[in-house]
């Protein structure tokens, strides 16, 4: 018999998760104003809100933490992390930050000014938030096919390079601050960007003397897709692919809470010493001295080790296979999901799931609430709530896709948990026609509203 697939790790420590009844959940979600961010974790059975900071660290990461050097300046842990970053990404200069959005804040303090444009593929919401906060504009140049949830393209996160070049050419007298390419493209469904696309974007950036920055939260998953889908990369190692990817960029921002499998941390990588020096000033103001920048020494140790584990082929294979298992099950149950399946999450197409709920009643959030009520599973809306209002007109923005994301934490849940989640979604799908109305907003913040929004059932 051919031996079945099994994970390249075993479990050393467990955490109890609590189940609940449908009545309890109905009350809890009402008390939470139908905002899943307001739930306590104990009210959630399987938490697929995010894959960010929720991974299980390894025995080696925990033991590395014991070697954390907590010196304010010049800590050994800083230098160990510096070496790991150089080794994996090739960047000579780096600044630690407490997480990804802090890296964006520091870097954009130097690069982005009022009136600027920042084109790329789809910017993540904090990235867009930091751009718009500076009264600049994020321009989404993702290839058109990405907005068709079921159309197949191996690299649906790619930048439409013709559109990018048009944006640059038509920008004058506005300035293009930099190009930001997010790998993988979270907003469009955890979709990868091909090496050839990165190469072409880099060529365009260089020809206009514009810096190319990679938002690298899931760079290793992106490399896995390049290895398994792009011609010429099957025999290359993940680390070889990663180093080629970064070779096209002038800098990177990193939320280490994803592919580096730590619970907290981030950094900025720079090729250019001058830019590093300018950003250092902001790092000191916002984050901390340049050799710790919001991270403790032990966190830098765990991150250095995590960068190696997160770029291991066997680990990536097990991770992306498990996410794929969730996608395949949902597909078998007839649930409309974005294809091909993303690297870190499965995205349910809420517009097709609940076609009778108008967009101003937030079908994505409505579905996320129903899924919680059904099985205690917490996902997140990536649709009109998250898209916020237009900063000028203050009208709701309706992105092409209205999604519910089920993000799978790394090395945390078993395949049985995945089967449970798929069954809960299938149950909601079966009773979808009895969900008559969506949600209406009671109160909201002026920026990044989805985190704190209060809603009620219509
Ligand atoms: N860039 C991308 C592509 C992200 O997905 C995130 C975070 C960030 C930047 C910001 O990093 O959270 O460390 O400040 N994404 C999380 C998510 C929150 O759930 O997708 P952070």
Description of the molecule:
- It is a single chain.
- The chain is of the alpha/beta class and about 450 residues long.
- It folds into 2 domains: about 20-50 and about 315-455, Aspartate Aminotransferase, domain 1 (Alpha-Beta Complex); about 60-310, Aspartate Aminotransferase, domain 2 (3-Layer(aba) Sandwich), CATH 3.40.640.10.
- It is built from 15 helices and 14 strands.
- The strands form 5 sheets. The chain has a 5-stranded mixed β-sheet with strand order 2-8-7-6-5, sandwiched between helices.
- Helix 5 links the parallel strand 3 (about 115-120) and strand 4 (about 135-140).
- Helix 1 packs antiparallel against helix 14 and helix 12 (about 315-330) runs parallel beside helix 15 (about 415-430).
- The longest helix has 20 residues, at about 315-330.
- It is globular.
- About 50% of the residues are buried.
- The protein binds ligand F0G.
- Ligand F0G binds near residues 99, 127 and 186.
């Amino acid at each position: 018999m051919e031996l079945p697939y099994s994970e390249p790790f075993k479990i050393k420590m467990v955490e109890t998760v609590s189940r609940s009844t449908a009545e309890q959940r109905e009350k809890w979600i009402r008390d939470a104003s139908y905002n899943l961010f307001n739930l306590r974790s104990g009210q959630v059975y399987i938490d697929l809100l995010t894959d960010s900071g929720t991974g299980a660290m390894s025995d080696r990461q925990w033991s590395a933490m014991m070697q954390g050097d907590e010196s304010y300046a010049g800590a050994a842990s800083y230098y160990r992390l510096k070496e790991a970053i150089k080794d994996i990404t090739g960047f000579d200069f780096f600044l630690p930050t407490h997480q990804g959005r802090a890296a964006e804040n520091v870097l954009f303090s130097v690069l982005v000014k009022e009136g600027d444009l920042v084109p790329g593929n789809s910017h993540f919401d904090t990235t867009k938030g930091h751009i718009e906060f500076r009264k600049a504009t994020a321009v989404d140049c993702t290839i058109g096919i990405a907005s068709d949830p079921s159309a197949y393209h191996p690299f649906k996160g790619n930048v439409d390079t013709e559109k990018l070049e048009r944006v640059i050419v038509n920008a004058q007298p506005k300035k293009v601050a930099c190009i930001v390419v997010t790998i993988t493209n979270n907003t469009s469904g955890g979709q990868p960007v091909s090496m050839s696309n990165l190469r072409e974007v880099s060529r365009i950036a260089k020809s206009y003397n514009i810096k190319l920055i990679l938002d690298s939260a899931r760079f290793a998953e992106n490399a896995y897709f390049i290895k398994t889908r792009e011609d010429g990369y099957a025999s290359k190692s993940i680390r070889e692919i990663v180093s080629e990817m970064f070779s096209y960029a002038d800098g990177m921002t990193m939320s280490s809470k994803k592919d580096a499998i730590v619970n907290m941390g981030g950094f900025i990588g720079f090729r250019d010493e001058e830019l590093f020096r300018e950003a250092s000033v902001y790092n000191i103001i916002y984050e901390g001295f340049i050799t710790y920048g919001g991270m403790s020494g032990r966190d830098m140790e765990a991150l250095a080790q995590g960068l190696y584990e997160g770029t291991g082929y066997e680990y990536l294979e097990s991770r992306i296979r498990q996410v794929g298992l969730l996608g395949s099950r949902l597909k078998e149950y007839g649930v409309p999901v974005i294809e091909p399946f993303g690297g870190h999450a499965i995205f349910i197409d809420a517009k097709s799931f609940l076609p009778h709920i108008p967009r101003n009643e937030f079908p994505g959030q409505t579905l996320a609430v129903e899924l919680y009520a059904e099985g205690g599973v917490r996902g997140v809306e990536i649709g009109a709530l998250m898209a916020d209002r237009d900063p000028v007109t203050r009208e709701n923005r309706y992105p092409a896709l209205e999604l519910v994301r089920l993000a799978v934490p790394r090395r945390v849940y078993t395949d049985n948990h995945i089967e449970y989640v798929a069954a809960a979604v299938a149950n909601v799908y079966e009773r979808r026609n009895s969900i008559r109305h969506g949600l209406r907003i009671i109160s909201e913040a002026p920026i990044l509203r989805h985190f704190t929004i209060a809603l009620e059932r219509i």
